[in-house]
Amino acid sequence: MSRTRRTAAAVVLALVLPLPVLAAAPASASPSAHRAAAPAATAVAPAELPAPTGPYAVGRDILHLVDAHRPDPWVPSAGPRQLMVSMYYPARPGTGGPAPYMTTEAARLMIQTKIPGSTVPPETVSRTRTWSHTDAIPLHGRHPLILLSPGFTMPRTELTSLAEDLAGRGYVVALVDHTYENSGTTFPDGQTLTCTVCDNPDAYPPDAIENNRAKDLSFVVDALTGHRHPAWRLAHMIDGRRIGVAGHSLGGASAVPTMAHDKRVLAGIDLDGTMFTPVPDDGLGGRPFMMIGHPTGTDEDPTWTDAWGRLRGWKRWLTVAGSNHGSFTDVPVLARELGVPEPPGTTLTPQRAVQLTRTYVAAFFDLHLRHIPQPVLNGPTPAWPEVGFHAP
Q1: What pTM was estimated for this model as a whole?
Q2: Contact 120, 44 (CB under 8 A)
Q3: Which domains does the chain have, with CATH numbers?
């Protein structure tokens, strides 16, 4: 059977954290399992994300957005769809205060979900050092907007390092938590909502989740650019004529329906996500699209093969040797600090993985939203020998 990056049958598994950790967990372990006696917490120093590589400092705001015109698709009784969004933007250096990585409760739920039985204190994750600053003074001018969508079951913070780097290069970034689709989303009232969709994967097919995410992302664009009174105090920074989308795993696959249904989104990247929603017959209208993934063995992901044949415009399919599914996120950096081993066959170090992901994602958007030539996208290069280019 052909291998895919993500299958419907595995929709509730921890697809990002290494398999050896999951295999070591007791068979009865689950996010809701009760234990007679919790082991003592293991003291681990908080991790530090790699510093952004761009010329600008990074500011961060948190938005609570409510779509009054759409009931929540997973929990209709909750009322209108509500989202938490982290906005990253280029800022003046030396302004603002340190931005926390995530709330302690969201960190606790992520650890409980991904590493059952772990004794790592949630503060170890929540206090991960970031490079963004709250209340930072924004840089003048208007900047392209990048939408980022995390992997299924993962909080938006898994893409913090990528978001910070893009902002440091002069992009505005909207990093979106898709409520009820991840281990925990904390709202301004202090409530942290958990993953309803994870409890019954058969009732929530992946293509339905992808298409809902497309609606979430289009709503975010509306809230930021489509109103006389936008939802963000710094919305004047956004150039609404230059919008791109990227994501990891299911979040990356969601770039396809997002672009299919929203022509404002001009370019998209899928970071290792199996595409349960096919590229439409018009090939996304010729808009550019890039797929970056880990090696899948002798059998290619059939959804990527199908997408490759359907895409009509500029396109790239890159395979990163020595990587794994989580290599395109913050997870390897956090896992190393927590003492969690990488999956077998992983030779790409966490720092190298972050650097590679940042380089190719930024190059893609610099080329297609800023029209700056990017030789790194033309083919293999000695600087990045891990990156293979799929031939047509």
Answers
A1: 0.90
A2: yes
A3: 58-389 (3.40.50.1820)
